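Mods, move this if it's the wrong board.
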Amino acid sequence: MQSKMIAPQFEGNIVAHPLSPSVLAKLGGLKQWPPVSQEFDPHSSWQHTFRIWICHGYTNRGNENVGLIRLARTPEPGGLTFRLSVRQTILHVGGIRQSLDADITCRNDLFGSPIDWHLENRFFRGDRLSSTLSNSLEGRRRADRIELRTGDSVSQMNRVKNVGSDWSVFDAVQRWPFQRSQSPSFDLLENLTVRRSGQRIFYRGVENFHHEGRDLRLHHFVQLGPGMLPYDYWLDRQRRLVLVTTFTRAYILDSNYVLETAGSASR
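Not the wrong board. Structure tokens:
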């Protein structure tokens, strides 16, 4: 199944089209397409670094890199579970730097369902840690219940069935079939903390994209559901997740990206 990439539409200096590979290319967000990786196996160990880029709605100003996220997948013996390491840094307005580290044990299932996790969310102004904004979280799933612990506070989510997280879906979508279908309804744990029920992911087919003299065929998935903005996932023919977009934010696979360039304009 194949669809044609829609040409981006701009009204003067206003971006009037959702972020997509062609829109990002027009805005300068895609400097270089990730090179082909013949050895990539979504079921094995891998590491992805995504550059985090935002658009402020204009074609000629305010579009910039604001951070990075590094995901590393390590299968565990027996093949039923895997470890997912998340290292994310975002530069906020006012010189505040957010550092989020998460270590997750996931089931090797349709959604990469989290079983146990530890999350550290820290905010810095310069080198100084803000203790009022920073927090840590422990989570675990047992049967149809999820327990979250922050300090002395414990909360529960009951009657859970299909569960994913924003980062485990980055992994799981690489293992899905390229065929017109939709996922079962699932709960997504946003930042491993907030439950967003009724999510579904749909396969939209193949989209053609011409960039820097290369004709690329990208497989397109879309996530829709209550309480969240839509997420679009684009994979290459090696099944690598190369681009994720949601509203004004894009996660662009870029193994050469270094943090020192975060916050610099990418026009």
